[in-house]
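Morning, I've got a small favour to ask if you have a moment. It would help a lot if you went through both lines with me. I owe you a coffee for this, so here goes:
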Amino acid sequence: MTVREVARLFETAGGARTERSIVNWCQPNRTGIARLDSYFDPNERRYFISPQSVEMAIAEEKAKAAKNKESAELLGTVPQPVETVGKSNPPVADDISRAKELERDTLDLRITNRGKDYLIDELNKERFF
């Protein structure tokens, strides 16, 4: 199977993955183990992936999603539907919660960028020294 076919299988299974993430799963990680069993054809310059490893990866992703959903429900972080009778939340409360959510997203992005910059610096040090 090609990377594009695998991406379509993930999409039909409900867990959309980009082709780039699938290519990353074909490459060995730090321990030298690839998540998907694949062969890179140098002539065609693309990966061919075994259907069995794709089925296992889809099953793993579904299990992760179910586990994350279950733990979120236990922690009470999943919003529960609320019945309202002609009454809605005031717009001010929605604005405040939206602002807090945006602040959290901004903080997450800052942390991610700092980690990315640190990793790039470390890789540059290894590469040029």
In short: Strands lie at 38-41, 46-49. The mean pLDDT is 83. Residues 1-77 form one domain.
